[in-house]
Design brief:
The protein is mainly α. It is about 80% helix and about 0% strand. It has one domain. It is built from 17 helices and no strands. α14 runs parallel beside α16.
Length: about 450
């Protein structure tokens, strides 16, 4: 079994990935501002409703193949063979999921938003594009080609932001333009990824697709529970409340995502690293990333919290001034959701698909038991509170699973230490130095 990547390489990967994640996060916040300004509360809720089911069914239709590709790439299987198989399989899984979504949408969307079904049907074109991109990215992530992975995923948001800006100023049907811009951005990212590694798609026979599907099904089962858990709050709001409340909730989650870039980075690195480790040597990096994620997320949350009441009306508009309290709940929940993501990705890399199902099921139960009744009483605020509670429960379950699985696992290792604060400061310092160097080169 491989000992994984070196500490120096891990730090370099973390810095590169965190820099890319910060860039993506900044673009995501800008996207949220443009969408809120151009669409308003009702339009923002309708936009979320349109994306909801195609996005869910896109994730559910991958059959877990992306996890298999990443794990096989981590075991040094030839990437040429994997890339050819990835494109062939993505064409099949993507088209199948798109067809299912096409016929299911009229029944999945409540009558209050039935007029949005044609736009949701248009967005089903996203599904095969997403599958192809996801499978190729999985190969990059598993094989350790983090720089290529970060470069390609960073291209989506600038293209999307450009499209949104053009639509804001020139388009009459801004909702239609926002959907079209998102499709173009995803398609451009896929074309770039294929072009950069175009040599891999020549003179290589694909690996058995049946073997990939067979090995991927347990991971797909865990992904079904993860996707249902991650989107259950929005599904409840779509069916229970009006688009305005969903728009408020979407903005609150967007504000809360200020602290999300770091956990995404740690999750990417954790999964890539876990494919090279086993239960005898995987606990130390697992616990270290949980501690580091908690320390940095809390620090970022404390810094951001005082500015939330001023930034929401300034950037999103006065129509969203009432979502300040919801945003605080979302901000706190995002801290724990990020740690859940880190734990889940690490355990996924170790092949613990059933454990992910158990933890995500526990979170779903909490959302239903708390978010459903609270949202009836308090709208978006109630659902944010239920979502916050579910993240805490899931994190606790994931940590219990990790302690049980790893040979040297113990709960004391999750308690933040003074060295973690030093490492966090050092990581921030290195990132700032890298950003300064980047700005000098650009100037």
């Amino acid at each position: 079994m491989s000992k994984g990547i070196s500490a120096k390489t891990s730090v370099r990967y973390s810095l590169e990935t965190y820099g890319a994640s910060l860039f993506i996060q900044g673009c995501t916040i800008l996207q949220g501002i443009i969408l809120a300004r151009s669409l308003g509360p009702v339009g923002r809720g309708e936009f979320a409703a349109i994306l909801l089911w195609p996005t869910i069914l896109a994730e559910l239709g991958t059959l877990g193949i992306e996890v298999v590709l990443a794990r096989w790439a981590g075991k040094r299987i030839e990437t040429q063979l994997l890339s050819n198989s990835a494109l062939r399989l993505s064409a099949c899984t993507g088209c199948l999921a798109a067809i299912i979504c096409f016929f299911s949408l009229p029944y999945l969307m409540p009558k209050e938003v039935k007029h949005l079904v044609p736009l949701a049907v248009l967005f089903t074109c996203f599904i095969p594009i997403y599958h192809s991109t996801l499978f190729l990215f999985a190969i990059d992530q598993g094989s350790g080609r983090i720089r290529l992975f970060n470069l390609c995923r960073s291209m989506l948001n600038p293209i999307y932001v450009t499209g949104l800006l053009l639509g804001w100023y020139f388009a009459e049907k801004k909702l239609h333009w926002a959907i079209a811009s998102l499709l173009v951005a995803h398609g451009s990212m896929l074309v770039l990824r294929i072009w950069l590694r175009r040599s891999e798609f020549h003179h290589a026979k694909p690996i058995s697709c049946l073997q990939m599907i067979k090995e991927g099904l347990p991971f797909q089962l865990s992904k079904i529970f993860s996707m249902l858990n991650q989107n259950l709050d929005q599904v409840i709001l779509v069916w229970l409340l009006n688009p305005i409340e969903l728009g408020y909730y979407a903005i609150a989650r967007s504000v809360g995502s200020i602290v999300a870039s770091l956990p995404v980075t740690l999750g990417i690195i954790s999964f890539s690293e876990a494919t090279r480790l086993d239960r005898s040597n995987g606990f130390s990096p697992f616990a270290e990333k949980i501690r580091m994620g908690f320390v940095l997320s809390v620090l970022l949350g404390i810094i951001a919290a005082p500015f939330v009441p001023f930034l929401i009306p300034l950037f999103y508009g006065k129509a969203f001034s009432s979502v300040v309290f919801v945003s605080y709940l979302a901000l706190a929940g995002t801290v724990f959701a990020g740690l859940v993501l880190v734990a889940e990705e690490s355990l996924r890399g170790h092949g613990k698909s059933l454990s992910i199902i158990f933890a995500r099921s526990a979170g779903s139960v909490i959302i239903v038991c708390t978010g459903l009744p609270l949202s009836r009483l308090y709208g978006a605020s109630g659902m944010a509170g239920g979502w916050f509670c579910s993240q805490i429960v899931m994190l606790f379950v994931f940590l219990c699973i990790a302690v049980e699985y790893f040979e040297d696992g113990d709960f004391k290792s999750f308690i933040p230490r003074f060295q973690d604060f030093q490492s966090a400061i050092g990581l921030i310092s290195k990132l700032c130095n890298n950003l300064k160097g980047f700005l000098k080169v650009m100037s």
